[in-house]
């Protein structure tokens, strides 16, 4: 088989505004019913199901049945990484309302990139941890011995991240900041710890996350990060 890849099917699957809305919503790692996705894109549930069929056929989305309903999610972290990496090449969605303006600011400040943190918060953490000697150079973001100790002290499950079947670390290019944040299994472990301790909370309306007062105190006190 040729090493070249035919990207036309994937490109065609993304070439509809409603399908773009769907994958953007699913980039937070959630599973959502067709009706919810359709309402977000302004299309009927039957039309949403047709669009989702196209995304499933292209291998971008999977479907699971829970009770009477089908829930759709991205096909995996590799799909999320590819979509996030396309961000710098894509046009921004026009901000036509105060609600969209607030949502855009929230996503730029802190959000989930499928299963790990992204936005200014994640880039600031990568910067601070590099500065404090917890991570190696920015193009690698691998933890140092001091970083392993520091992350373990925070309660991050570093051992499980190392044993995971996916890469332990990945420098994931942040599409809003145009700089890397920490991805991979270790990035997932960090995000899980930040959520379970209440340092950040998922915003109910989308991919954005809010930093709580406890989280702001931790960030300022330990690494001088102001959010």
Structure description:
The protein is α+β, with helices and mostly antiparallel strands and 227 residues long. It folds into two domains: 8-75, Orthogonal Bundle (Arc Repressor Mutant, subunit A), CATH 1.10.10; 98-223, no CATH class. It has helices spanning 8-14, 17-26, 34-41, 45-57, 77-86, 98-109, 120-131, 145-154, 158-163, 184-196, 213-223, and strands spanning 32-33, 61-66, 69-74, 111-113, 116-118, 170-173, 180-183, 200-202, 209-211. The strands form four sheets. Strands 1-3-2 form a three-stranded antiparallel sheet. The chain has a two-stranded antiparallel ribbon with strand order 4-5. Strands 6-7 form a two-stranded antiparallel ribbon. Helix 3 (34-41) packs across helix 4. It is globular. The N and C termini lie far apart (49 Å).
Task: Provide keyphrases for this structure.
single chain, 227 residues, alpha+beta, Arc Repressor Mutant, subunit A, 2 domains, three-stranded antiparallel sheet, two-stranded antiparallel sheet, 11 helices, 9 strands, 15% strand, globular, ArsR-like_HTH, WH_DNA-bd_sf, HTH_Metal-responsive_Reg, Metalloregulator ArsR/SmtB family transcription factor
Secondary structure elements and pairings:
Elements: H1 8-14, H2 17-26, E1 32-33, H3 34-41, H4 45-57, E2 61-66, E3 69-74, H5 77-86, H6 98-109, E4 111-113, E5 116-118, H7 120-131, H8 145-154, H9 158-163, E6 170-173, E7 180-183, H10 184-196, E8 200-202, E9 209-211, H11 213-223
Antiparallel strand pairs: 1-3, 2-3, 4-5, 6-7, 8-9
